[in-house]
Design brief:
The chain has 228 residues and is α/β, with parallel strands linked by helices. It is built from 10 helices and 8 strands. The chain has an 8-stranded parallel beta sheet. Helix 3 links the parallel strand 2 and strand 3. Helix 4 packs parallel to helix 6. The protein is globular, with a radius of gyration of 16 Å.
Length: 228
């Protein structure tokens, strides 16, 4: 396995600040950590985008916002509006949850259009769109199908999990994502990365970003306790 430095791993981390009980003080504290550790982005709830952007102003850390989080069942028009407001508030990346129920119903056209509605808002602004599959609900064949739908809809990344659904990422799921769209779309494991070994294993496998809630523990070689 290729050795990764701490700064190399940090530069691939989207630090998740998404727990429902986080306060403004938590957002400010996490933003300070993100700047000091040199992570790629700080991923926040839609209501926190403006504050996060203020805290991260002048740094290299991007603001990411979740859209349709955590279940993906908002109407497409609402997701598009949520995306527009997040971009207005300073988001440079969007992590949207696809409509899992419609996808599992076999309504692939709806699932594709749902993603495309957010892409249509983001692309003109140069904002990246990552599509969260919530892969724990899917077979490996469905993971591949969801990746192709995201690509057809114009997304930039595919992502495994919200961290609030069943399971998280697995090496098998990530392998399918990379095989299906790697090199054309970015691949982001997320939802269960709680130690250094897991983080670098996914990067060595070919992942482009990592969704991590316990960034300091991972970068310091510890094992995070508790949930994502």
């Amino acid at each position: 396995m290729k050795p990764f430095t701490v700064s190399e791993v940090a530069a691939r981390i989207d630090h998740a600040v998404l727990k429902p009980n986080f306060t403004d003080a938590d957002i400010e504290r996490h933003a300070t950590m993100c700047v000091s550790r040199g992570v790629k982005s700080m991923c926040v709830r839609p209501c926190d985008v403006a504050l996060a952007a203020k805290c991260l102003a002048g740094s290299r850390v991007h603001v990411s916002a979740v859209i349709g989080f955590p279940h993906g069942h908002h109407r497409s028009e609402i997701k598009a509006q949520e995306a527009a407001l997040a971009i207005r508030d300073g988001a440079r990346e969007l992590d949207m949850v696809m409509n899992i129920g419609r996808f599992l119903s076999g309504d692939y056209d709806y699932a594709r259009r749902d993603i495309a509605a957010v892409v249509a808002v983001a692309k003109p602004k140069g904002v990246l769109v990552k599509v969260i599959q919530e892969s724990g609900y899917l077979t490996l064949e469905q993971v591949a199908k969801a990746c192709l739908l995201a690509e057809e809809a114009g997304a930039d990344f595919v992502k495994t999990s919200t961290g609030f659904g069943p399971g998280g990422e697995t090496s098998e799921i990530v392998a399918v994502m990379i095989k299906t769209v790697g090199g054309r779309l970015g691949v982001k494991p997320s939802g269960g990365i709680r130690d250094w070994k897991t983080a670098v294993a996914y990067l060595a496998q070919g992942a482009d970003r990592l969704g991590v809630g316990s960034t300091e523990a991972v970068l310091d070689g510890a094992t995070a306790s508790g949930s994502y």
